[in-house]
């Protein structure tokens, strides 16, 4: 009987030591200095990684590239090449700008929310929707109308005097730039015969579009600000998505299953200490 007790006592100790090693190792990996890297002004840390980061660092879904002149670049498969303007670790967002965008011309490729919402988008690494499915982007439209559009409370700007539109888009005195602000196209005041020639996205906050007193400089600033995407799905396994429940607890969901995103390491750590 005594030997049995000793056996279990020893076994217990072995398990505790094993758990300690396990949790120390996992915890250590996450915190390892070598996993945090800099690229220009950007701090790159979990879940982001550079192509040449050590294998155990970051998350394979969030690979960035640090290129000449310390430019941080995201190659996002469906769309191409983007400058990373900022990574915000406080609210799980990343702000991007088209690689070929310059202050006096429209970006070469049109972009709308629809580019991010096809297929199984809800579990994709980057989302145009933030928490509670609030859109983080607003459309910028380049519009041609048969009549000169009235300068209304809606934001409108005569395009050709403001930015250089590429030759591939028609331009004349009735071209304008409009900002969406979650309005449907009819509520944007586009009359019959108006054509949307080009669409782009911004996350610039213009006070609900209630400010008609903006300049060309403002327009350029809005376009060059870029757009934000959420990477909160990094908190969940691949194929799952992150959301806030009614109590503002972050959870992961997959096929109707709910799971709290508690780190397994912290549970272990708690048990052991
Ligand atoms: C990057 O990290 C360093 C040290 O962790 C910190 O001092 C610095 O403010 C950070 N910079 C940015 C842009 O977050
Ligand atoms: C967004 O989708 C449209 C329509 O499918 C496509 O023409 C455009 O090139 C896409 N934008 C980018 C940046 O890939
Ligand atoms: C996220 O944080 C950045 C920097 O603090 C801020 O500029 C941005 O507006 C925030 N985005 C959202 C969606 O809260
Ligand atoms: C975008 O920029 C790259 C690199 O400067 C260039 O090779 C490419 O032709 C540009 N694409 C467009 C559509 O302007
Ligand atoms: C611009 O609008 C005016 C009326 O406001 C119209 O007479 C003119 O034909 C329009 N120009 C073009 C190129 O559509
Ligand atoms: C358009 O581009 C030309 C040549 O690059 C430049 O001289 C002109 O000032 C630009 N116009 C605007 C409105 O930025
Ligand atoms: C827009 O501005 C006007 C005048 O400044 C104000 O009365 C109105 O409440 C504003 N609307 C919104 C939605 O902020
Ligand atoms: C519009 O902007 C101009 C220049 O910034 C300023 O002088 C003017 O007071 C503004 N008007 C309103 C109504 O805000």
TrEMBL record:
Q: Which organism is it from?
A: Pisum sativum (Garden pea)
Q: Which UniProt keywords apply?
A: Signal
Instruction: Decide whether keyword Lipid metabolism is in the record.
Output: no
Question: Boundaries of each Wall-associated receptor kinase galacturonan-binding domain copy?
Answer: 35-98
Stored PANTHER family:
LEAF RUST 10 DISEASE-RESISTANCE LOCUS RECEPTOR-LIKE PROTEIN KINASE-LIKE 2.7, OS01G0690200 PROTEIN
Give the highest taxon in the source lineage.
Eukaryota
Main location group: membrane
The protein here is known as: Wall-associated receptor kinase galacturonan-binding domain-containing protein
- Give the GO cellular component terms, alphabetically: membrane
Q: Where in the cell is it found?
A: Membrane
Give the GO molecular function terms. polysaccharide binding
Q: Signal peptide span per the entry?
A: 1-28
**Membrane-related topology note:** Single-pass membrane protein
């Amino acid at each position: 009987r005594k030997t049995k007790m000793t056996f279990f006592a020893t076994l217990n100790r072995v398990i505790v030591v094993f758990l300690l090693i396990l949790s120390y190792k996992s915890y250590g990996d996450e915190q390892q200095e070598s996993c945090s890297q800099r690229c220009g002004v950007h701090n790159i840390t979990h879940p982001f990684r550079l192509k040449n980061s050590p294998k155990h660092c970051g998350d394979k879904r969030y690979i960035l590239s640090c290129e000449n002149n310390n430019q941080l670049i995201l190659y996002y498969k469906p769309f191409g090449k983007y400058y990373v303007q900022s990574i915000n670790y406080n609210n799980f967002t990343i702000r991007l700008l088209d690689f070929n965008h310059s202050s006096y011309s429209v970006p070469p490729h049109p972009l709308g929310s629809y580019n991010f919402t096809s297929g199984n988008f809800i579990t994709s690494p980057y989302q145009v929707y933030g928490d509670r499915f609030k859109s983080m982007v607003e459309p910028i439209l380049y519009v041609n109308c048969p009549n000169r559009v009235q300068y209304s409370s809606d934001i409108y700007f005569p395009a050709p005097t403001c930015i250089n539109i590429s030759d591939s888009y028609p331009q004349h005195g009735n071209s304008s730039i409009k900002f969406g602000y979650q309005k449907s196209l009819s509520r944007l005041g586009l009359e019959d015969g108006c054509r949307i020639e080009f669409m782009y996205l911004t996350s610039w906050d213009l006070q609900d579009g209630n400010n008609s007193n903006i300049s060309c400089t403002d327009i350029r600033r809005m376009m060059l600000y870029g757009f934000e995407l959420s990477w909160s799905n990094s908190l969940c396994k691949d194929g799952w998505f992150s959301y806030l429940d009614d109590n503002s607890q972050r959870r992961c969901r997959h096929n109707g299953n709910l799971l709290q995103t508690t780190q397994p390491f912290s549970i272990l750590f708690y048990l052991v200490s």
